[in-house]
Every structure is written in structure tokens, then in C-alpha cells.
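Progress narrative, Year 2. Work on Lysine--tRNA ligase from Leucobacter iarius advanced from sequence curation to structure prediction during this period.
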Amino acid sequence: MSEQTAPETHVETEAEVFEQKRVRLEKRDKLNAGADLAGGAYPVSVPVTTTIPAVRAKFGELVAGDETGEIVGIAGRVVFQRNTGKLCFGSLQAGNGERIQVMVSLAEVGEDSLASYKELVDLGDHLFVSGEVISSRRGELSIMVTEWRIAAKAIAPLPNMYTELNEETRVRQRYLDLIQREQARRNVVTRARTMASLRRTFADRDFIEVETPMLQTMHGGASARPFVTHSNAFDTELYLRIAPELFLKRAAVGGLERVFEINRNFRNEGADSTHSPEFAMLEAYQAYTDYNGIADLTQALVQNAALAANVGTEREGTQVVEWADGTLFDLGGDWDRISMYGSLSEAAGREITPETSVEELLALAEQEGVEVKLPNHGKLIEELWEHFVIDSLTRPTFVMDFPVETSPLTRHHRSIPGVVEKWDLYIRGFELATGYSELVDPVVQRERFVQQAAEAARGDDEAMGVDEEFLRALEHAMPPSGGMGMGMDRLLMALTGLGIRETILFPLVK
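Result:
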């Protein structure tokens, strides 16, 4: 049995929190005023010699009553306290969530120090202790304290460590979520491992990572509504980028034949379980390949990320990920590739082709209760496909060959009129990534831009304008290429089974 026993849960009122802050501020003042309390409430440093995880790794096999004779200096956040007469127990938590017991006794620290400990140390404080590593009589790995200092005084009390925070608090006060919840800390580690894995996969294939502008004079590279801002220095309207595509293609024109970027995009649109106005995006372009080759690359990127996410778990070495609800999802093997028109035809029970008229598609949409804003052939096809097909996808699936109207930056299909060489990758029922055989003909690209400008004039606020600077670059010849874009937050959703607000460390909230 541990000396640490969970207290009864109690939800503090606002008045209780206010009173705790008042008392803690008085303790802060006393710490700052006390000449014998080294460094006050916020010392510039404390003499740590090791970490809580390192102590646990080295001495985790001690049995009850063992003494090591090894003196360590460690620091952590106080997450448990039980103060008795001559012996106080506490628990310090490291940033990764690992904990160790500290024992502050009259015999080791003396009467004055013990009294100060009881008076000045609160839950939530960062505390430095120095002492011998032992195993207590109940077998708890512990530090028998000979010296202690406040490393940082907490003025606000911690929430109850034994009661789960609600979702709103977790999102708005992520620091509390990280202190309290293992899943929150694990999400951060998984994301870091995923990003490192993506970069390793690209490096193994000789890609170069670059950075492109986030402030742009013309938004482009995707169909989305931009955020608008103003530059005082240039006295001009600017846009937060919706995609890095047009600048990465300039890099490809300049001879960077394998290039990628992982950075932030901004789209002034709705927020829900799969969309955030600000999000991390990966885009990559590879010369002398097409959308089939870029699909192979994307599969490797995701599968390697799954391997990285599983390090240290019972699934290490596999591409089977475990979602937050306990579901196991296999990202291994070769993924399915299906035709958008073919799969729609099969699901709708009638042949639908690029030649199917808008009137026919409108009639089908009305019959199925599918509403389409500013309908054209391409938008109707995509909305109907989502209605009929998307819920049937259980495995990771590349949906191939999209209508030309909805993909203005994509090359015409080499053998099927009316469609372009584009795929969307669906995992868990949502779009994770999109890939293309890139449009590199500047004449056709200008025609597509003009079509987009006409759509914008008719009220489509997601349509692009004519980007003359990009066209000038394209006129200097971009090699045949495949390109892809993938949302990093959505990749974490695919690996963890969580919603987008859980995969973003600090999501935007009102």
C-alpha cells in the first residue's frame, strides 16, 4: 500500500478559489521576504542533479526498506500532500507525468524547516528537494529529504487531480490538461514523433524542406475563403495564406525537384470536429512522377508515422494504431484505390460519367435531399459522391480522378476526358490528404484561373483570381510533377482517433 491515498473529491467554489489565492499570495510575500528561504518564491534556478524519470529508471527495482546511499537533487510539481506531525509525505510530478514520493521528516530537516514546509508548500507548487533515494516501508520509491526549496510558487490552485476536466476547460486551459491527463501529454509526444517521422521519410527520399510566405498579396493554391489583413508598411491588403502551393511550385520551377513544407495555413471558414480556421499543413512536390507515385509516397509517410506513434507501446513495430476509444485500426498493407465516378455509379445504381448533364445530377441531388451551393457538374459530383459513398469506406482509400471543375490546378487525365488526375485519401471517414498530377502548362493554367475569376464574380467566395506572378514563373517551365497536401492535425486524428481540438495543442477558441 502506498502512503499516497486519493482524497475525497471536492469541487471548489469561486469563493474558495479566491480565498486560496489570497492565502497563497501571502505565502509568496513571506517567501520573498525571508532571507533564509533561498531565492524567494521564484528563484532563478535550483541545484537539480537529475530528473524524476531518471531516478525511477535507475532505482525502480528497490524493495521495501532499501536504502541506496545516493543523494540526488530533483524538482517537480507537488500533486499530492499529506502532512502529519513529524513526517510529511508529498508527490512530485515531472513534465512527462512520472511521479516520485518525497518524505520530509523532523529528524532530517529540523523543526524550523519542517514547520516552514507545512506552512509554505501547496499543491501545484514547483518544489526542489535534495536527499537520499530510498524505498519506504510500504515499498514506495522515495526521496528522504534533507533540503527543500520552492522552485516556483503557484498562486492559483490546481483542479482536483482525481476528477477529469471537462472538454471546455481542457481546450481553454491546456496547461491544466497537460498537468492532469496522461492522454494530453501523450498527444504532444505522438505529434512530435509524427513530425520527426515525416521529415525522416522525406530525407530518405532526398526531399528539401523550405518555408514560403504566410502573408500573400493574392490568395491561391486551394478553394477556400481567406483571412484578410492590412500591411501598414506597404499600405496594401494582404491575405493569410490558404495554401503554400503556388510558392512551392515556384521553387520547383527554380530547380528544387523534391521539395516540401510543414507549416500553418489559415482558412476563414467553419470550425467543427474535423476543421479548424488555423491548422498545420504538409505540402510536397516531386518532379518526374505523377499522382500514382505521390500516392505511394503518401502511404509511406502515413505508415511510417504509425510506426513512430507506436514506439514504446505493445504495438511497437506494427502499423496498427489504437484510438482513444480503444478501437484498433490497421494502417498497414497496400491501400485501396477507387474511381470517384465508378464508385458513385455503383452506389447510386446508375451510370454517372463526366458527360452526365447538370440537369440530371440536379434531379438526383433533389431526389436524395442533397443541397449544393452554386451547383456545377463538378460540385454536384463531389456532393453526391459524399452522400452515396463516403460512409462505406472502412479502410484507408485513395479516391481517384475528380471532375475538372473543382480542381483548377490539376492536369487533365491522360485518357479520360472531363476529369483530372487527382486523388483524395480518406481515413476514418474524413479526407486526410489530396494528391495530383500537377498542371504545368501555363496556357491551360491561365484558362483555369480565368474560369475561377468568373466563378468569383458570380459569388463564389472560395474561388481564386488570376495570379500573374505565378503564371510568369510557370512560363519558365516546371517539370512534370506529382504533388500532395496533408493536414497534420487530421493525421493525428487518424493516428489517435481524437477530434481536431484534441490534436492541436492550443486550438483557437472564442
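The two ends are 45 Å apart (CA to CA). The first helix runs from residue 14 to 33.
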